[in-house]
Design brief:
The chain is mainly alpha-helical. The protein has 8 helices and 2 strands; from the N terminus they run ααααααββαα. A two-stranded antiparallel ribbon has the order 1-2. The longest helix is centred in the first third of the chain and has 59 residues.
Length: 236
């Protein structure tokens, strides 16, 4: 027996109404959630922009204040020197110093004899006065550079250059290999070895000379400032 036509129509109408209500509720809920998420995102973005602007202002204030004065003042002077022209001249002087060291060691001592002299002085088995004098000259050279211009980098280059040149005379010599044979040192190997020796020995010596030169310059400045006020009295 078929159900009445009116019951089918009523059920269909109810189902359609429920579907429309469900779709409307889902759309309203989705719209509310999207609106809430968008509002939250805008507020978070505004807060981030405000924090970023505040951070940039504070960073600019710090960089434009003591930090900038330190970077462009004492730190720059300590690393590059007080007079950049003099630092550049010192940098150019490293080339003839390295070449002169190569010529002197090759003409008067030789690489093998130089290694024996330095090794004997280092381990104390056969100290050589010439090695100590050479180290003292390098310290004095670094102290002179630091006293006149400061600048750890140009001072280090000035001290490293002669050591680099002396170690570069290893080029063309025969050295033992790990297998027990011998091989001739090529130019790239000699340059790499000289750079290593120059940094390993030159940096500590340059640091000692730098501290000595800066200390002597400070003492001279203090003594000059102390003697300064008494001059008008002496003239009077």
């Amino acid at each position: 027996m078929r159900p009445p036509q009116s019951s089918l129509r009523s059920s269909l109408t109810t189902a359609v109404a429920l579907a429309i209500a469900a779709v409307s509720w889902t759309a309203a809920t989705t719209r509310t959630a999207v609106s809430l998420a968008w509002t939250t995102l805008r507020r978070a973005t505004a807060r981030l922009q405000s924090s970023a602007r505040t951070g940039l202002r504070e960073s600019h204030r710090v960089l434009a204040g003591p930090l900038r004065r330190a970077i462009t003042g004492p730190i720059r002077d300590a690393l590059l020197g007080r007079r950049l022209v003099l630092s550049l001249l010192i940098g150019l002087l490293t080339v003839p110093l390295a070449l002169g060291s190569v010529w002197w060691v090759d003409a008067n001592v030789g690489y093998d004899a130089l290694v024996e002299l330095v090794s004997g002085t280092w381990d104390g088995t056969s100290p050589e006065l010439g090695v100590f004098l050479a180290a003292a000259v390098l310290v004095g050279l670094g102290a002179l550079s630091a006293g006149l211009n400061s600048g750890l980098l140009p001072t280090s280059g000035l001290v490293i250059a002669p050591i680099f040149g002396a170690a570069l005379t290893r080029y063309g010599t025969s050295v033992l290999t790990y297998g027990g044979g011998t091989t001739v040192v090529s130019l790239p190997e000699a340059v790499a070895y000289a750079a290593y020796v120059g940094v390993a020995f030159g940096v500590p010596i340059a640091l000692c000379g730098f501290l000595l030169g800066v200390g002597l310059r400070r003492v001279g400045v203090v003594l000059t400032d102390t003697a300064g006020p008494s001059r008008p009295t002496e003239q009077a």
